[in-house]
Design brief:
alpha/beta; globular
Amino acid sequence: MKKIVFSDLPMKKQLFDLCYRVDGNKALEYEGAVAFPINAVLARTLKNEDDVKIVLLSKTDVEGNSAVNAGLFQKELNAINEKIGAHIEYVTITTPFIETREVHEKLFRDMAAKLEDGAQIIADITYGPKPLPIIMFSVLNFAEKFFNAEIKYIVYGKVDFVSGGKAPQNPIIFDLSPLYYLNNLTNTMEFSSSKEALKALDEIIDF
């Protein structure tokens, strides 16, 4: 299967290898420790016959940490893939660490250019600047609408940070794809009043 993975890279230097549990889906839990939460999900979902394009989203931070972390990401996933044998291609999209309209539009175009018809898409929004998840959701919507893509998982790795440079605690992965699909659904809803819309939304959420 053709799979495309979009993953934001951290701009910080110190990363921790953590063993993540998965909220609501123990089948995705990986026994190993990873610095990049998406790699725990890929460890559980990749298959030998998969053709995988990893699109790493990098920012030009002043210390060059994002570029270094791109290499660490590849090293970590390649080690996981040794026992799986999937075909993996790596692509890095680098943009300046400024949040102008021009930068956002270029990133959207560059991400959209990596899409392929009928692919399954997995995304990770754990790291990176705050506008990136907004751009990510927009690209995923574009992929679903125009490339017949399947949005499989949208990964967010949550931790509790502690002082003293110690490793974060309570690592857990949340899949935000239900939020993505809820947003898509509300975009297609049509009602004659806000009261009707809220009632329908309550019924959808309570279902």
